[in-house]
Design brief:
Two copies of one chain form a homodimer.
Chain A lengths: L6 E5 L6 E6 L6 H7 L8 E6 L3 H14 L4 E6 L8 H13 L7 E6 L1 H13 L5 E6 L4 H4 L4 E6 L2 E8 L4 E5 L8 H18 L1 H9 L1 H5 L3 H21 L14 H11 L6 H18 L6 H11 L12 H10 L3 E2 L2 E2 L1 E6 L2 E5 L4 H17 L1
Parallel strand pairs in A: 2-9, 3-4, 3-5, 5-6, 6-9
Antiparallel strand pairs in A: 1-2, 7-8, 10-11, 12-13
Helix pairs in contact in A: 3-4, 6-7, 6-9, 6-11, 7-12, 10-11, 10-13, 11-12, 11-14
Function (chains A, B): Catalyzes the conversion of 3-deoxy-D-arabino-heptulosonate 7-phosphate (DAHP) to dehydroquinate (DHQ).
Subcellular location (chains A, B): Cytoplasm
GO molecular function, one term (chains A, B): 3-dehydroquinate synthase activity
Chain lengths: 372, 372
């Protein structure tokens, strides 16, 4: 899995287009990739990472960049969703100012979705926006590193404070995935199969058939799955950069998923786990609204093959979930907007979903819990 | 000065183009203008104002909007630069969430530059960006309300945290200027004459000749001056929305001006006062670098005609000013970028300015103080 096998795909966004490089051994060649992407070496770079990832890969990335002629400072934040706060954001801005980052500087996110979102929001707002490079170290981040959505959380709602800020480059070194805890592998695969569920039945079925290889982090399967997942997302984002319409389909499972994360308390559920439950709920809703027969059953099988949760604990407060969904960004002009599958590989953006139908689906996911 | 006299000019930015309406009696017709600008009435609006402006105009704007079918909530922040903080920003986001603002909502800034920058940063980052309407109540805001630059301050540097976020509409009711304290009138006129100094000798001379009428807030002079100032800025911003090159000329006087504000402590100098001193310094630097003869003397006369400061107090620490400039965003890849006039109405973006030359100019502005 050396450089020879690296694949590059491009997210087409006019003058904001950028490459995603996926392969092994990329960290050590980071300086070359940054230079190719047009990041100048006269201004300092800042790497943002977390205290899980930093001990494993930070020094390697720092040396690769220093060796390649870049000046680098690093900032390490506590691992976990709690770091996506304005307080941590402010600390990073302070660090960037003290390190002398200027308009030609770049901020690199070395880590998963949390680090990407946080560092991306710093890059998107520092001096009104400077260069941003994603170096994802999780499977989940194949999703969050494409599309330019960056944000921090507000105590009342997730990702409430953010901007659209496209990276210059995504450098996906799959070697870093070997150190992922199994639970995070599974959670990451939830976003991968999501891309099949919304856009490409064949890919959804491929994920299902190759679930054991993916769970074992078999390189060939992993590179294919990440590449296909990124490519689907890139295709959707290219058509609708700022989420005016089409892009909303990427939120399959997220309306309920975000509510589950908020009600359970950030960190109790991994993001991928919460949206797996959300995707199960959406499939059930979809089948009831006249989607293809077997939609719900098949979705459940796919998610279970990836060892993902598809039910809710009995004691999770339905009304608290409903209230959290009402605060979610997916509400617009007072109506509930819900991404509902009509078949595997196809979803619709439903703006007429009745709150009671959602309440009913939540209750039924709890019954499933009892019977499982 | 009723609606009949309102003038509309358009900032041309492709799909982000927006109108600036300048005239009397506009507050009362706000709902019509918002509707024309495409702001839907199904989602709540939030007006952000400060405790100087709110007692004068907030109720009128609220009634005008409610009467026109909009739901409105308001948030009043303390007047002054201190409100451009992440803390106040966070309070406004909380208020917006609690009031149920969604992606179709708009945030209105009723006030001067501080309220515009702060409310604009909320609008630019709430749910990754929602609609924004500027309702300026100061002369200074004719500058800040055009161009989409919004930001809050970091304790280490001004406007360090921000985004580019274009408004949907600027509604400039000149009736509101009648309640401005004279000191703020003068400070606002500094940005007006700046537009002449960088782009249009004729307009600079018009400001000079009409200084007494402008200081007296004579409506005809005011509407012409604001319109011409906005038009010059709009022209520059249209050619360079994200400040890659040309737009930097708008920063005439700002490199030193921001340093003066920071070193004196935010709030001691009004922004317009600080940049007046900065423009005097830039003219002196420009003349020394080979600009037209009389450049400095004429600039001084123009600024003095508007009763603006053009010297520095003896006890202002030169090295503190130099250090503050080094932290300023105008530094790029280690070099000092300075906007330097070559004649009245024309400036160059100099990237080779020597720190000692700037230090020398600062010292000479202090000597002027002694001799005045």
């Amino acid at each position: 899995m050396r450089n020879a096998t690296a694949k590059t795909l491009t997210v087409e966004l006019g003058e904001r287009s950028y490459p995603i490089v996926i392969g092994g051994g990329l960290l050590d060649r980071a300086a070359d990739y940054l230079r190719q992407a047009g990041v100048p070496d006269k201004s300092p770079l800042m790497i943002v990472s977390d205290d899980n990832v930093a001990p494993l890969y930070l020094e390697r990335l720092e040396s690769a960049l220093s060796g390649g002629g870049y000046r680098v400072v690093s900032a390490v934040v506590p691992a976990g969703e709690q770091s996506k706060s304005l307080t941590v954001y402010n600390d990073l801005v302070t660090r960037a100012i003290e390190a002398g980052l200027d308009r030609s500087s770049a901020i690199l996110a070395l880590g998963g979705g949390v680090v990407g979102d946080l560092a991306g929001f710093v890059a998107g707002t520092y001096m009104r926006g400077i260069r941003f490079v994603q170096v994802p170290t999780t499977i989940l981040a194949h999703d969050s590193s494409v599309g330019g959505k960056v944000a921090v959380n507000h105590p009342l709602a997730k990702n409430m404070i953010g901007v659209f800020h496209q990276p210059e480059l995504v450098l996906y070194d799959v070697d870093t995935l070997n150190t992922l805890p199994p639970r995070e592998v599974r959670a990451g695969l939830a976003e991968m199969v999501k891309h099949g569920l919304i856009w490409d039945r064949e890919f959804a079925e491929w994920c299902w058939n190759n679930a054991p290889r993916l769970l074992d982090l078999e390189p060939e399967a992993l590179i294919y799955g990440l590449e296909r997942g990124c490519a689907i997302k890139a295709q959707i984002v290219s058509r609708d950069e700022r989420e005016n319409d089409l892009r909303a389909i990427l939120n399959l499972g997220h309306t309920l998923g975000h509510a589950i994360e908020a009600v359970a308390g950030y960190g109790r559920y991994l993001h991928g786990e919460a949206i797996a439950v959300g995707m199960a709920a959406a499939a059930l809703l979809g089948e009831e609204r006249g989607g293809e027969t077997g939609l719900y059953a098949e979705t459940m099988l796919m998610l279970r093959a990836l060892e993902l949760p598809v039910t809710l604990p009995e004691d999770m407060d339905t009304e608290a979930l409903m209230a959290a969904m009402q605060r979610d960004k997916k509400f617009r002009e007072g109506r509930m907007v819900y991404i509902v599958p009509s078949e595997i590989g196809r979803v619709e953006i439903a703006s007429d979903v009745d709150a009671d139908a959602v309440r009913d689906v939540i209750e039924r996911l709890k019954e499933k819990e009892e019977s499982s």
